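Input/output pair, single chain:
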Amino acid sequence: MRGRRGVGRTAGSPRAEAADRVGVWDWAIREDRLSADEVVAELFGLDPEEAGAGIPFERWMRTVHPDDRGQMGVHLAAASGPFRSEYRTCSRDGSRRRVQVQGRFYHDAQGRPVRSSGTVLDITERPGDPGRALDEAADHCMAARRAAARIDAPLVRRLLDMALIEIGRALAQQEGPRH
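Output:
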């Protein structure tokens, strides 16, 4: 994948800025080599040359936020046909990005996955989506609430419930009145 620089670059076009944040990847499963273009390398905190040449899948997984690796595992366990997922990545500079991954698994005659390929879209800052931060806060509170339910921490659960109620109110205000 060496030399690819993202999809849809046209200098000066209104779509160029957003298109610069779309990349492509390909995973040769049997060879355990995942290769990606420069955009994907940047989003996942990988060296562009190494990503272009291909890296082991385990190394790729280490660039996914630890809390989101299980979600990726669900798609890998299914390993059938097309998939779409959102998760966070950890860049080399320590920043976190939110990406949407779309791809497809390809199988051999025995039905075993042999290859997967697709695109990555940077959705960290979606224009025109002011509720995104509240949605993210709600997701984190729900995860914390589930964790708190497994321990004896009634005050923590109550505080998280209060936070979720306030997030819900803020989301409702953004949506406006319902008719």
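The beta strands are 22-28, 33-36, 82-90, 96-107, 113-122. The chain has two domains: 16-122, 132-175.
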